[in-house]
Write a structure and sequence with these properties.
The protein is an alpha+beta fold. The chain is 40% helix and 19% strand. The strands form two sheets. It has a four-stranded antiparallel β-sheet. The chain has a two-stranded antiparallel ribbon with strand order 2-3. The relative contact order is 0.16.
């Protein structure tokens, strides 16, 4: 999470809505939870107020990371990965009388998503060129095979 240029962080910073498989909770203020930040600037739920809104939702657990939260206005969401506690709390407090949407994930979910992002990361220019060269060579070989096959066939429309 420390490298701001890795594929996982880039993809999540660009996202403006929760994904289909994300755990999203919508709460009004006061949320009924305490947030804290780790050394990488990731915000997590440090405690839940018993009987509070977060507790009653049944979707918030101690130790969950806040992956996204509602933007200052509108329905958009923004990534909270590595931005720090101050920015997340400010975004939540600004929503005054409107519900706050949070996308939460357990620590192991975060690692799994990072692994998937790295696995499907965009290739470097050198990798793209090498892959294209292999495809071009394969296509040229297939074309040569087709030419040889056409030379061998002489009958009606080359069928026999």
């Amino acid at each position: 999470m420390n490298d701001v240029n890795d594929a996982f962080v880039k993809a999540n910073r660009a996202a403006r809505s929760a994904g289909a498989g994300d755990r999203t909770v919508e709460l009004r203020l006061p949320l009924g939870l305490d947030l804290d930040e780790d050394q990488s600037g990731n915000v997590f739920v440090s405690s839940i107020t018993p009987g509070g809104r977060a507790d009653r939702s049944g979707l918030v657990f101690k130790g969950d990371y806040v992956a996204m939260c509602s933007a200052t206005f509108g329905e958009d969401m923004w990534s909270c990965r590595g931005v720090g506690l101050t920015r997340v709390l400010t975004a939540i407090k600004v929503r005054n009388n409107k519900p706050v949407k949070l996308v939460l994930e357990a620590a192991d979910e975060q690692e799994e998503k990072k692994r998937r992002a790295i696995a499907f990361a965009e290739k470097t220019e050198e990798e793209k060129k090498a892959e294209q060269k292999l495809k071009d060579e394969l296509l040229a070989a297939m074309l040569d095979e087709d030419k040889d096959l056409l030379k061998k066939r002489k009958g009606f429309l080359g069928l026999w």
